[in-house]
Amino acid sequence: MRFGAQSAVGPLKRALLRRPQWKVSDEKWRDKWGYDREPDMRAAQSEHDDFAALLRQLGVEVHYLTGDAPGQCDSVYVYDRAVITERGAVILRSGKPARREESELVARGLEELGIPILHYMREPVTADGGDFLWLDRDLVLVGRSYRTDAAYHPEFVEMFASMGVHIEPTPVPHWTGAGDVMHLTSFISLIDRDLAAAYRPIMAVETVEFLTAQGVEFVDVSEEEFDMGLGANVLAVAPRKCVMLRDYPQVRRDLEAAGAKVHVFSADELSHCMKGGATCMTLPLLRE
Question: How far apart are CA 270 and CA 3, in angstroms?
Answer without folding.
Answer: 27
